[in-house]
Amino acid sequence: MKFFKYIKFILVVSVLTTITVHGQYCENFHKLGDCKIDVKRPYQIFGQSRSDMIGVGYTLKYNVIFYGNKEYIMSFCTTKKYYPIHFKLLDPISEKVIYDNKDDDYLESLGFGIEKTKQFIIEMSILAHDASDIEIEEYYTCIGMLIQGKPTK
User: Is residue 72 part of a domain?
Assistant: First the structure.
């Protein structure tokens, strides 16, 4: 009987460890992936930058607060086969689209200034134009959102 409890314990621990390690695979992708080529001085990396795992056909949404009197650069990146990235800025109350990069041929970076502190919803998905059908159906990839800011003069 103790043997079965021991086996059950080992299985639970191994499953939980696998899930944790798999999720951490993308943890700093916005600092290490293609986003890093957009690091600009004197901009500082904003603490609300994110990385996550995503599959084709899925959408990630993040609430982000941009503080007033600052200029921002948002850069989005993924692994090569999964480009382009489709992102939108939405009003958090009405969910009205404020900006859609589809209108700019899936531009990967966006610069803007904010006069007063404002919250947005950022919606991201990958289109994977260069991935095979098998890669689209069976694999997840990392997506990164690097936000940099600096005070306006």
Answer: yes
pLDDT tens-digit map of 100-130: 999 999 999 999 999 999 999 999 999 999 9
Give pTM, 2 decimals: 0.80
| Domain contains 140 | yes
**CATH code of the domain in which 131 resides:** 2.60.120.380
12 part of a folded domain: no
**HEC letters along the chain:** CHHHHHHHHHHHHHHHHHHHHHHHCCCCHHHHCHHHHHCCCCCEECCCCEEEEECCCCCEEEEEEECCCEEEEEEEEECHHHCCEEEEEECCCCCCEEEEHHHHCCCCEEEEEECCCEEEEEEEEECCCCCCHHHHHHCCEEEEEEEEEEECC
pLDDT digits (tens, 9 = 90+) for 25-74: 899 999 887 787 767 788 999 999 999 999 999 999 999 999 999 999 99
Position 16 in a domain: no
Domain interval for residue 60: 28-151
